[in-house]
Amino acid sequence: MAVTKPIRILLSNLLQRNLKPAPASSNDASALPSFDELPAFHEFAGCAWGLWGENDQLGTVNLLTDDLVQRAAKKEILIGRTVSLNWPLNFPEKVSDHVAPMFGRKSPAVMMTLREGKPIVRDDEIHINTQSGTQWDGLRHFGILEHGVFYDNTPAHTLPHGIVPMPDPQDIDSSLQNIGIQNWADHGICGRGVLLDLVRYHTKAGAVPLAYDPWSTHGISVKELEACAVEQGVVFQPCDILLLRVGFIQKYCEAKPEERDELARKEEAL
């Protein structure tokens, strides 16, 4: 899991313990099973595979229905101000060598060209690794290493790799589409967002130091999330899109150049 992705969908109703088992294709959050009711996959507890039937491409994004989006827009939008959560495409980067890779990935590169030598006609070419900046983890980004499978028990060997030509959008090989992140893009990710500021919660608004290192692996418990929500006056609703502020970017912005370079030698962590 890459450090540059603090944003994750976490269904608040899965924090509850009194929900009933759901039908396989249900988009009704109230019918979902609790975490404890979910079956195990080998040694891993709480496997939600199969809740939305065979060949599902969306996972919990299935719950972001038109009705839910409409209700969220009516109740939550008060002033209409938008806030970008995107990090620059070149972050995080090594300060001493801007073209050096971070976490084993290639750094982004931008080529700005003048068409036919005319300074008034410009084209930009941007080459990036999809781990650059801020991004979502798709269902086939990081699988279960011990068993060689991705979401819904999809075998890793069945998914494409290497250089893949851009297909005709009207005639795409199904293997290229299977559990790809474009399915989320086609559906859209829109709903009621909840931001839990764990940094403010743990530091008492800056009165005490942060108890954990945002650049090291650390667990975030349900108990912490619930306590932070209570302190902020947040009341969870089914299908909330949960945003966590954990302090990684704050530490990066405050770090000295040599500290940023040291980050490049760390294992990926959240």
Describe this structure in words.
With 270 residues, the chain is of the alpha+beta class. The chain folds into two domains: 12-87 and 134-263, no CATH class; 88-133, no CATH class. It has helices at 66-76, 174-177, 182-187, 198-203, 222-232, 248-254, 257-263, and strands spanning 109-114, 122-127, 149-150, 154-155, 193-197, 241-245. Strand 1 and strand 2 (122-127) form a beta hairpin. It is globular. The relative contact order is 0.19. One of its GO terms (biological process) is L-tryptophan catabolic process to kynurenine. One of its GO terms (molecular function) is arylformamidase activity. This is Cyclase. Belongs to the Cyclase 1 superfamily.
Percent strand: 5-15%
Low-confidence runs? 1-25
The percentage helix is 10-25%
Straight-line N-to-C gap: 7 Å
Helix and strand content put the structural class at alpha+beta
Strand numbers in spatial order across the main sheet: 1-2
The number of strands is 6
Number of helices: 7
Major sheet = 2 strands, antiparallel
Q: Give me the Rg, rounded.
A: 21 Å
Number of domains: 2
| Overall pLDDT | 83
